[in-house]
Design goal:
With 515 residues, the protein is an alpha+beta fold. Helices cover 29% and strands 27% of the residues. The protein is built from 15 helices and 24 strands. It has helices spanning 81-86, 88-98, 138-146, 161-169, 204-212, 238-248, 265-274, 307-311, 332-341, 347-352, 370-376, 382-395, 416-429, 450-472, 498-504, and strands at 17-22, 29-38, 41-46, 49-54, 59-61, 75-80, 101-107, 113-120, 127-136, 152-155, 181-193, 201-203, 229-233, 260-262, 278-283, 291-292, 294-296, 302-303, 318-324, 362-364, 399-405, 437-443, 480-485, 506-512. Strands 6, 7, 8, 9, 10, 11, 13, 14, 15, 16 and 19 form an eleven-stranded mixed sheet that branches. A five-stranded antiparallel sheet has the order 4-3-2-1-5, with no helix packed on it. A hairpin with a 5-residue loop joins strand 7 (101-107) and strand 8 (113-120). The radius of gyration is 25 Å and the shape is globular. The N and C termini lie far apart (61 Å).
């Protein structure tokens, strides 16, 4: 394997040539004469004097940049640029730590590409593995995996059937199987404003007005007399497309001509933080201190863009992040990495990177919760109101866990996320005091009669409880488990849409510690 350390073709100041070094987060952008490249560090002569910049922080442009792209690597992965640059570096460092190794990361200078070398901290410091991460797009990443030029595809969306069929035709195996589809984290899209903007909640109609240019001043929304400045990614970018389709649907949104178009989420956050009247949309990991905005959807349900809501998948603008592998070419080292990345061991570094892992969170429930207030103010028949009262009385006795089970379409089987959550839930419950009470709480969408839906919710909750018990065997013998169903009350999504109905068909997990 070729390594680059301790030397550079430019050996003297007389030969030094000008280069530009930039970081992906925009904090570094400098031009100077490259004096040397050693120990994975650029040594640059600038107007401020001689500076040293680690190669893992910046990319280099200019004829004098060293060629860092020719190194042989053991594992190549490509796909979503923001996951590649925002999550993968720290995930690789965490993986190295789990193997008692150290990771050396550096940019190759070829676009959004980095190389990580994992070196054993013990013994003679031999190299364990090398990784190359290339940030492009989910579609390109799957294309690289399809033609076998990479080992892992990084995506912010699930592979579609047509793509999975193409893989199957090449002998890659079932891309939807747990052995090849690895869910590693969740990313939410959040609306952000400047920290000094007092507006904390917007409804979909107001968002439409802002992005179309009909609303031009925050005073029109009860805020300060301040011009609205929309900042957004370019047309065709995944996050922009997801935001527009989720909030505006099929509505024809003609974006205001005064919108600021920027290259990436870091630039969106930077613009919002520097401009008092700005508003933008970024991934959860890219808020950078901006204020997040609660969204009231088309059905009047308030969605809070926090990690708990993303884990329960009750915040509409959230996406699962995937790693995909081929069944016919996967190596033991690739399998070890993707298995670790989707395990509980990776949750800490995923959270550190600003993304949302699958570790179990616990939240107190009270009558002042958003959904409790919504039920208190809801209309309904006497039977519906009686069920809501029963739920309100019961919920204040229990905390809610972020674990929320959903089912495969038209099936009583848990979906692919449910298989991960089941294992994490059992691990969490093992740590709880003996005598704790666990309640599995079923809900449905509004299709069908109210009493039928309540019975269906009870049956589904009991099925999930039995599934968890079977998986846990005797590991939770000192806990008490029961189930209940409330049917279509307390919806988290709009029942008018397929996605909203899917969100509402769920089984929650509540817990009460012994007195």
């Amino acid at each position: 394997m070729m390594t680059i350390a301790g030397f550079l073709a430019i050996a003297s100041s007389a030969q030094a040539q000008q280069v530009t070094l930039k970081s992906s987060d925009g904090t570094v952008n400098m031009t100077g004469d490259l004096i040397a490249f050693e120990d994975n560090t650029y040594i640059l002569r600038t107007a401020l004097g001689q500076l040293r910049l680690a190669a893992n922080r910046v990319s280099c442009s200019g004829e004098a940049c060293p060629d860092l792209s020719q190194e042989d690597v053991d594992i190549a992965m490509s796909g979503s640029e923001e996951i590649g640059s925002g999550l993968m570096p720290i995930l690789l460092e965490g993986y190295a730590g789990a193997k008692n190794a150290a990771a050396t990361l550096r940019n190759t200078g070829l676009g959004n590409q980095l190389v990580a070398n994992l070196v054993n901290d013990e013994g003679f410091g031999e190299e364990l593995a090398s990784f190359q991460v290339t940030g492009t797009s989910a579609t390109e990443g799957l294309g690289d995996l399809l033609d076998k030029t990479s080992d892992i595809a990084i995506t912010s969306r699930r592979i579609v059937p047509q793509e999975a069929q193409a893989f199957g035709a090449t002998g890659a195996g079932d891309m939807y199987s747990p052995a090849q589809e690895h869910i590693v984290a969740v990313d939410s899209l959040v609306v952000i404003t400047n920290p000094d903007n007092p507006i904390t909640t917007l409804n979909v109609r107001q968002l439409f007005g802002i992005y179309s240019g009909a609303i031009t001043n925050w005073s029109q929304l009860g805020g300060p007399d301040l011009p609205v400045q929309v900042v957004i990614r370019d047309v065709g970018e995944n996050r922009r497309d997801a935001f527009e389709s989720s909030f505006f649907g099929s509505a024809d949104v003609a974006l205001t001509q005064k919108a600021e178009i920027v290259a990436d989420s870091n630039s969106v956050a930077q613009f919002v933080n520097q401009n008092d009247g700005a508003i933008g949309v970024v991934g959860y990991a890219f808020q950078r201190g901006a204020r997040t905005v609660n969204i009231i959807n088309q059905c009047g349900i308030t969605m809070v863009p926090d990690a708990f809501s993303a884990k329960t998948e009750e915040y509409a603008l959230q996406r699962r992040l995937y790693l995909y592998t081929r069944g016919d070419t996967i190596t033991p080292e690739v399998r070890n990495f993707v298995n670790w990345a989707s395990s509980a061991g990776a949750d800490g570094v995923i959270s550190k990177a600003g993304f949302i892992g699958f570790n179990v969170d616990r939240r107190e429930q009270s009558n002042s919760d958003v959904r409790a207030i919504a039920m208190q103010n809801a209309e309904g028949t006497p039977l519906e109101k009686a069920v809501m009262r029963q739920m309100l009385e019961k919920m204040v006795e229990y905390d809610r866990l972020s674990t929320t089970f959903r089912f495969q379409t038209g099936s009583a089987l848990l979906d692919e996320r449910g298989q991960i959550d089941k294992a994490r839930l059992v691990e969490y419950l093992e740590t709880q005091p003996a005598g704790s009470e666990v309640l599995f709480v079923g809900f449905t969408d509004s299709v069908g009669g109210f009493e039928y839906n309540q019975t269906l919710a009870e049956r589904r909750a009991a099925e999930v409880m039995g599934n968890v018990r079977s998986f846990a065997r005797n590991r939770l013998a000192d806990l008490t488990m029961s189930s209940i169903g409330y049917g279509e009350v307390a919806p988290s999504g709009c029942n008018a849409s397929d996605q909203g109905r899917r969100i509402n068909r769920r089984t929650e997990v509540w817990i009460k510690s012994p007195t």
